[in-house]
Amino acid sequence: MxxxxxxxxxxxxxxxxxxxxxxxxxxxxxxxRPARQYCPxxxxxxxLPAARSPFVEDAIWEASGGATEYAHPRPDGLPAAALSVRRxxxxxxxxxxxxxxxxxxxxxRFGEAQHAFEVADASEMSFGEVEMALADVSERPASxxxxxxxxxxxxxEHMEINETSGLVLERIFASxxxxxxVGDLLITHPISxxxxxxxxxxxxxxxxxxxxxxxxxxxxxxxxxRASVKEMLAASGxxxxxxxxxxxxxxxxxxxxxxxxxxxxxxLVEGLRWLHTLGDRVPGAVQVAPSMxxxxxxxxxxxxxxxxxxxxxxxxxxxxxWSQAQLAMELxxxxxxxxxxxxxxxxxxxxxxxxxxxxxxxxxxxPSLLWxxxxxxxxxxxxxAFPRGPQADAGLKKLLENQYRSKAEExxxxxxxxxxxxxTQRGRNGWQGGGQTPA
Length: 439
Prior knowledge:
- By secondary structure, the chain is α+β, with helices and mostly antiparallel strands.
- Among the domains are: 4-124 and 387-428, no CATH class; 229-259 and 264-317.
- 41% of the residues lie in helices and 14% in strands.
- It has helices spanning 4-22, 54-63, 80-94, 100-121, 127-133, 229-236, 239-245, 250-253, 268-271, 298-304, 324-333, 344-352, 360-377, 381-384, 390-410, 414-428, and strands at 36-39, 44-47, 169-172, 184-188, 203-210, 215-220, 258-259, 272-276, 286-289, 292-294, 313-317, 320-323, 336-341.
- The chain has a 6-stranded antiparallel β-sheet with strand order 3-13-4-5-6-12, sandwiched between helices.
- A hairpin with a 4-residue loop joins strand 5 (203-210) and strand 6.
- Helix 1 runs parallel beside helix 4, helix 4 (100-121) packs antiparallel against helix 15 and helix 15 packs antiparallel against helix 16 (414-428).
- Residues 130-159 and 422-439 have low confidence and may be disordered.
- It holds the Pfam family DUF179.
- One of its GO terms (cellular component) is cytosol.
- InterPro entries: AlgH-like.
- Residues 405-439 are annotated as: Disordered.
């Protein structure tokens, strides 16, 4: 039987949980303890200190949708926070545990989440304001063709992400043990990469998995670049690159090259990847999603370039890379929302939406809107609505830095403490926990 003191501790905790369930977005920055932190130097996990009670970690894990660090709120309407706390309470009662200390620790965790949300909510760049800023910006007309992208107003106020539109992504939860596969989309959690601009607010398409070496590669499909193929060719100055691309249609060379990631290798031609909907027309192309292919024979592409619709081709440079163990750990922590396009409409919409607009401000804000649309399509409406902006980001960075610093001070293991110290320092320099290193 619970003591009176325990019941007194439970009541305010349940009130806090009910408030979080009414507004699930407040659960987004649930600053729970990272169960494991990947060390890119040692290529292994560094164990962090556990809470005073394992039941606290269980309750946090359940309330945050099965992720161990960054909360993934469950579908709207499911009272995950209150449900997990009630289940935790029953366990404590069954074992005859004094509940008050655990309840206070849980309330502190939920309080931190509430505070982080309030900091972000003060941002001048809320979701609604971004939508209003781009209300009149729409996708350029797509050319008619067998696999031409559908005519959607990607960045306008009439964008609808629902089952009727066909733009729904199959969500794969953080607790799902199924390993990543080619074609999976990794959508950045709103706060997991706040200090890492290269990955923040990204939609990454997994395009290659090397089971022998244990490497995974993906490319961001929503980050426009600042140079065309022709401009990059001029900057390269490699005769071999010029020879390969000499037969390309001028319109293809004028396409803006998207930033697929921070990692690259080889020459321009070797590093330039073409995402397209041309299928078997390009020999050697690899299918990576429904009606979506990657790469292929450049010479054949050059010979056919005059008959290719620009809406069916997208050049990308660079990639993101992980070891399989590192990516599995980041998915466990909730760094990414993993989803999959099961229809050609969804795959083409999220991987081929236009960024060739002449308006500079549209190119700057389009990645954020497509990122939010992907979260919405994956059923994470509260994540999609999470406010972001300069003020919000500054506050969130400070909260996360303080969290890692406090964990480093609490850690008795010197090696783990030093690791957390490096994580905090890298966070100041643009690298936050959950970052990626060359696989």
